Amino acid sequence: MTEGKHLVKTSVKDEQLITKRRQQMIGAGVKLFKEKGFHRTTTREIAKEAGFSIGTLYEYIRTKEDVLYLVCDSIYDEVFERIESVGAKNGTLDELVSAIRYYYSVINDMQDEFVVMYQETKSLPKEALSYVLRKEEEMTAIFRTILQSCVTSGELSLNEREIDLYAHSIFTQGQMWAYRRWALHKNYSIDEFTDLQVAFILRGLGARTKGEL
Amino acid sequence: MTEGKHLVKTSVKDEQLITKRRQQMIGAGVKLFKEKGFHRTTTREIAKEAGFSIGTLYEYIRTKEDVLYLVCDSIYDEVFERIESVGAKNGTLDELVSAIRYYYSVINDMQDEFVVMYQETKSLPKEALSYVLRKEEEMTAIFRTILQSCVTSGELSLNEREIDLYAHSIFTQGQMWAYRRWALHKNYSIDEFTDLQVAFILRGLGARTKGEL
Amino acid sequence: MTEGKHLVKTSVKDEQLITKRRQQMIGAGVKLFKEKGFHRTTTREIAKEAGFSIGTLYEYIRTKEDVLYLVCDSIYDEVFERIESVGAKNGTLDELVSAIRYYYSVINDMQDEFVVMYQETKSLPKEALSYVLRKEEEMTAIFRTILQSCVTSGELSLNEREIDLYAHSIFTQGQMWAYRRWALHKNYSIDEFTDLQVAFILRGLGARTKGEL
Amino acid sequence: MTEGKHLVKTSVKDEQLITKRRQQMIGAGVKLFKEKGFHRTTTREIAKEAGFSIGTLYEYIRTKEDVLYLVCDSIYDEVFERIESVGAKNGTLDELVSAIRYYYSVINDMQDEFVVMYQETKSLPKEALSYVLRKEEEMTAIFRTILQSCVTSGELSLNEREIDLYAHSIFTQGQMWAYRRWALHKNYSIDEFTDLQVAFILRGLGARTKGEL
DNA sequence: TATGAATGAGCATTCATTCAT
DNA sequence: GATGAATGAATGCTCATTCAT
Asked: CA angle at residue A47 from A42 to A48, to 5 degrees?
């Protein structure tokens, strides 16, 4: 899952050190990119924020874009790590609901990271970009799988195309919380937001709702 | 609606000329920003694409950000112009459905513009940013109003908070078509996408669907 | 002859200005390269010496190597301009001797330029390098032609291969004056050097010398 | 002859090790400098090619220029070693001819080294530069001595100034083979080149040629 | 009004050299 | 003695902006 990191070449050999320094860089990157965006952040600022010199920064990356790539990759990793536990087992609606709730709480925790990722993604070099899109695909797949289980178990009645599209919908509805924060956060708590969205989604999926959520 | 343009200072007097030149700049801006993003586009390129010299460009703007602002403003104007016709009159679900369908077709027509707008928005100077967010607010308001009518007419049963949030949802579900094009366009036509989304939304809103599209 | 200059792209349109600025750049380049070599000279120094800003410098060139190329090109042009007058007409030894003498005086006048050219030439990008070598070839051709005339007129008796090689020899013997200046200038005046070399060459070519030079 | 090496300071004591390491550095230096020139070669590359770390490299030199100096010095040593056997004994023309032939074959064997030396020499620090020029002087002296013997023995008739200058000429004519390889190698074999040059030189020196070479 | 040459602050990146281990 | 991570001054190049014509 983390093999993406290996795409970025280093001249340093000590693996542990690489991990440590990259963690510092990523932290600095996230912080600065969310504040001023990728393009307005200089490599010197990244190095300084990371706690080392510009020379050292370039011992661990080849280009500025590498930092962005590392940042995106690490965000995905973290989201993945936190999400993948919620696998589909029995195909119950309860399972679906907890997955959604869990995912939305992750979004809430990592709002800045999400915003950074979706806004700067296009600055990635071609190769890195397709790598990132593949990751995104993998994430959607999680919900697709859960929906599939619910269909299999008879809890939902959706065809292939609906499953695929609505997996994206669930995803997108959550990301709203990060992208439209300027409109939503002043009116809703994350809990209320989640409750309303879960209800909307379940109905949207055609679940025979009695009094769930 | 277009008063936003007045925020950008000019040293030229002739109003007609200003309008013409700005139209040229905006066209160039949209084209270039969608191709390479705001930061990777130079003012020289904008001027060239617009058909005049940088010197002239700077007679009509003060900073490069002004171009971005003008571009965003013009996109909003166009979207607005095309959307606002669909006002709520009787509060029927049909009305809601056509509004959604109409909006989604606008998104389809202006995909690049949407992507540009949402990805570069944060590069706007503070003042322009809040102006843009206000526009965004106004747009959401259109759907809020329609939903409200449907509630008033008894077609839907939603409270204030639901109306507000679900207006955002409808919006976001449509934008998916632009932002997740890499995943959606290869599998769905805009028509199928719209059909599926409309169905999802109507159910999500708790409409007593019998067999409507 | 000067079409080489057109290989270097400019963003300035005024042809006269281009010529003027390039003249300034070339002057600065020759001076600095001869002092500290191409690699130890910075673009900022070139701009400063040329009398304009770094920004302006880059309005007239694309890369630092362009300056080197322009310098080499201009040196060739000047040498050419001064040499080509000495065309072979009757194929007399006198003609050959004056050509040699003339060429050697040019070398003496442009010692620094010669040294710069031969020492930095390999820093040129591939394309420019082959352009320069073609020029060098053209110069050798001048002496080849003269030798040929002398053979035709019966003043010398050389075969094709000898003509070709000895043209290079004449060339090289002159360049010695620039490259081995540290050894030669303290012992010889340019006149004595020329006299001795002319005598050496004439004998070397097998000319029936009576009391020439 | 090798005392030049002592100009380069070391922090290592073991003399044998110093010699070994330097041999490695010089090998790396020659290879890299001939490929990409002194300035385009980094110390890291030199260390890597030499088979040890930059840390170690800097235990044996003080600055990057030291490597260049060591390389030049070693090239001179090798040329010297191979040339000095050809001492003047009897002052016959045959001796002169074999010396020339021998020298030209050395040039042919070490073309790259010659090119490196003459092109990078000016990057040497002052002190090292004059050391190198002294070496060059010593080499010319070899031919001067041979010419002198020939004069003494009556085989040639040259005055002091001619002897001195023509020693340089013989030298330069040979170096042509390395410097103008782009023009010469495609048309001549080293043997033909040598034959033609020897003939030219002998005649140039005024030797009473019958049918030698 | 329109033009485009000039400016220089700013930026990404490199690389010789040092020094703690 | 050997290693290689760290450093930061230096450098090539860009580009938004100005202003004389």
From this structure: 95
Do residue B172 and residue A168 have CB atoms under 8 angstroms apart? no
- Which residues in B lie closer than 8 A to residue A160 (C-beta atoms)? none
In terms of C-beta density within 10 A (0-12 exposed, 13-18 middle, 19 or more buried), how is residue A71 classed?
buried
Give the chain B residue whose CA is nearest to the CA of A120.
B119
The CA dihedral of A98, A99, A101, A103, to the nearest 10 degrees, is 160
User: What is the per-residue burial (b if ≥16 Cβ within 10 Å, else e) of A166-205?
Assistant: bbbbbbbbbbbbbbbeebbeeebebeebbebbbbbbbbbb
Q: Per residue in A9-36, pLDDT tens?
A: 888 988 999 999 999 999 999 999 999 9
User: What are the tokens at A173?
Assistant: 């509805």
The region of weakest confidence among A177-181, D2-6, D199-203 is D2-6
Residues A152/A93, Cβ–Cβ less than 8 Å: no
Percent of chain B whose pLDDT exceeds 70: 93
Task: Report chain B residues whose CB lies below 8 A from the CB of A136.
Answer: 183
Rounded-to-integer distance, Cα B146 and Cα B170, Å: 12
Tokens representing C83?
């040499």
Q: Given a cut of 50, is residue C201 above it in pLDDT?
A: yes
Q: At what angle do helices D160-179 and D190-204 cross, to 10 degrees?
A: 160
CA distance C188 to chain D (A): 9
Residue type, C88: A
Question: For residues D5 and D154, which has the higher predicted lDDT (pLDDT)?
Answer: D154
Q: Is the CB of D161 less than 8 angstroms away from the CB of C137?
A: no
Rounded to the nearest angstrom, the minimum Cα separation between B13 and chain A is 34
| Optimal mutation site among B196, B198, B202, interface A, most CBs of chain A within 10 A | B196
Rounded Cα distance between B69 and B26, Å, is 9
Segment among C142-146, D2-6, D206-210 with least mean pLDDT: D2-6
Give the number of A-B residue pairs with CB atoms closer than 8 Å. 93
What is the rounded distance in angstroms from the CA atom of residue B71 to the CA atom of residue A119?
18
Q: How many CB pairs under 8 A join C and D?
A: 93
Do D and C make contact, counting contact as 3+ CB pairs within 8 angstroms? yes
D204·C206 Cβ contact <8 A: no
Q: What DSSP state is assigned to residue D11?
A: S
Q: Residue A56 is which amino acid? A: T
Q: What proportions of chain D, in percent to the nearest 5, are helix, strand and coil? A: 75, 0, 25
Q: Which chains touch C (3 or more CB pairs under 8 A)?
A: D
Strand E atom within 7 Å of A53 CB? no
Assess contact for B61 and B70: CB atoms under 8 A: yes
Q: Distance in angstroms, CA of C64 to C1' of F15?
A: 18
Q: What region does A30 belong to: left with phi over 0, alpha with psi -120 to 50, or beta?
A: alpha
Contact flag for A and C (3+ C-beta pairs < 8 Å): no
State the average pLDDT for chain B: 90
Tokens of B32: 């270039």
Estimate in Å the CA A211 to C1' E13 gap, whole number. 61
pLDDT band at B212 (very low <50, low <70, confident <90, very high): very low
